[in-house]
């Protein structure tokens, strides 16, 4: 049986249901286009229907479909380290430079910086992100140079007051540094302050234990001096500031060597001489380890090893006269050492590293010892220590240039020679052996070649003295006046009922 043919002009009209009601038969409506519940739905325009008379199948009319999308949850994104301040440039990086300034900014800066250098200090702290360690070093440098960094009393500002101020007023209100009026006209020596602070005060006060801490101080001060030059704060001191920046570079290279030399000195040879002939290590070692110090576990050099160290140093790096005279006096048991008096240490003048022949000699005959070289030095007297006790005649003679010029010839291991440089000052006791060479004892400290002693550290925390007696009289007068007022008040008052 054949199926009846369906005319093309009698196509069935199909109606589509909304997308959200496709799987819910209960909510299906007979006529979705006229449903009052979908008046706010957004219609989707379909292709317009063609005439059925032309024999083309009629397409469905526009069908309203609800396009309201569900609300998406916002993802919680953490701020980057740069936005949080971490890894943000501080302005003290090696290749950091200030951005170019416009002529208008330069003119404004000239009006500001012509007043006093205090404004330059405030704006430098504003332009840089200074961490706590760097801030401590920088503030101490300012205080060493005469800037007051003490907290300002009775100058607190409320947030409401800050809102009414401009940027200039806020900067001045939050300032932590100031310069006294009586110090504004004093002459400034940037180079002297830098040398005094970095070579004398900074190693003593902060005691840097790492190379990074040394760079933290030198880079901070160098950056501040560069900021002053860039903004032309004090053009009359331009040459002096340039010298101060060079001093920062020198101190950055020498300070860490000084710290290492102080910790590793005096070396094997000088320790051996001190053990045998006299010094801080003399008689510290007990044979056969018969006595044990529970508080000190340092391995001490015994006399046998000390003799070996001294003999190979003289044979490998010493001159013939020293070696022959040492052998003769040793055979006669006549070796004696005397401490050099009226000096605080020595200043290095020349360094002679061990040559290949000396290294080969040690490698063949004493591979367990370190090859030694030579270091030439002269006597040094620390200007930061009290003067040597001299008679009036000797003092006058020394002031006129008649002080004895002593020269020393030391033996030192190569690892320590690498830490030395001409101009280095070592504070230690020096001993002279009667065979013609010297040795030094425990190293107390070492100073740079530009070591400078100033009295600025004595002025830190200094306050102008006042007459305490006048204060007592004023207090007494005030108490007398108050007592008189109280007595008068009591006389005028009537008896209580």
UniProtKB/TrEMBL annotation:
Biased composition, class Acidic residues, residue ranges: 474-484
GO cellular component: ARC complex
Domain of life: Eukaryota
Classification via Pfam families: Arb1
Family matches, as InterPro entries: Arb1
Record field: compositional bias (Basic and acidic residues): 485-497
Polar residues composition bias: residue spans: 1-13, 28-60
Region span, Disordered: 1-88, 468-497
GO biological processes: regulatory ncRNA-mediated gene silencing
Compositional bias (Basic residues): 71-87
Protein name (database record): Argonaute siRNA chaperone complex subunit Arb1
């Amino acid at each position: 049986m054949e199926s009846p043919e369906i005319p093309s002009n009698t196509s069935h009209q199909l109606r589509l249901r909304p997308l959200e009601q496709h799987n819910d038969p209960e909510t299906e409506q007979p006529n979705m286009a006229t449903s009052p519940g979908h008046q706010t739905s957004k219609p989707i325009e379909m292709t317009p229907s063609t005439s059925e008379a032309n024999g083309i199948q009629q397409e469905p009319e526009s069908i309203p479909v609800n396009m309201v999308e569900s609300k998406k949850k916002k993802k919680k994104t953490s701020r980057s380290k740069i936005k949080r301040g971490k890894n943000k440039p501080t302005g003290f990086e090696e290749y950091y430079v200030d951005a170019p300034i416009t002529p208008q900014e330069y003119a404004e800066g000239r009006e500001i910086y012509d007043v006093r250098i205090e404004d330059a200090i405030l704006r430098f702290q504003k332009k840089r992100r200074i961490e706590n360690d760097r801030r401590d070093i920088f503030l101490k440098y300012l205080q060493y140079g005469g800037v007051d960094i003490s907290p300002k009393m009775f100058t607190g500002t409320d947030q409401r007051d800050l809102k009414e101020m401009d940027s200039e007023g806020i900067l001045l209100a939050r300032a932590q540094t100031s310069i006294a009026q009586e110090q504004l006209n004093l002459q400034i020596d940037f180079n002297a302050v830098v040398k005094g602070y970095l070579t004398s005060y900074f190693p003593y006060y902060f005691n840097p234990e790492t190379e990074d801490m040394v760079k933290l101080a030198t880079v901070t001060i160098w950056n501040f001096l560069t900021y002053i030059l860039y903004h032309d704060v004090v053009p009359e001191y331009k040459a002096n500031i340039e010298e101060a920046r060079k001093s920062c570079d020198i101190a950055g290279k020498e300070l860490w060597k000084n710290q290492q030399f102080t910790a590793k000195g005096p070396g094997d040879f000088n320790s051996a001489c001190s053990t045998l002939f006299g010094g801080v290590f003399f008689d510290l070692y007990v044979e056969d380890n018969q006595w044990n110090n529970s508080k000190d576990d340092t391995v001490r050099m015994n006399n046998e090893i000390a003799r070996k160290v001294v003999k190979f140093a003289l044979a490998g790096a010493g001159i013939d006269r020293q070696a022959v005279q040492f052998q003769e006096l040793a055979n006669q048991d006549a070796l004696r050492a005397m401490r050099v008096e009226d000096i605080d240490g020595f200043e290095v003048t020349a360094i002679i590293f061990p040559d290949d022949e000396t290294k080969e000699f040690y490698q063949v005959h004493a591979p367990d010892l370190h090859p030694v070289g030579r270091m030439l030095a002269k006597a040094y007297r620390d200007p930061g220590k009290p003067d040597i006790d001299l008679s009036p005649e000797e003092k006058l003679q020394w002031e006129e240039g008649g002080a004895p010029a002593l020269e020393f010839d030391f033996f030192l291991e190569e690892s320590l020679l690498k830490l030395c440089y001409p101009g280095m000052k070592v504070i230690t006791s020096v001993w002279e052996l009667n065979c013609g060479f010297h040795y030094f004892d425990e190293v107390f400290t070492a100073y740079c070649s530009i070591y400078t002693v100033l009295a600025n550290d004595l002025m830190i925390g200094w306050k102008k003295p006042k007459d305490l007696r006048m204060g007592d009289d004023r207090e007494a007068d005030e108490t007398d006046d108050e007592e008189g007022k109280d007595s008068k008040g009591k006389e005028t008052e009537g008896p209580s009922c």
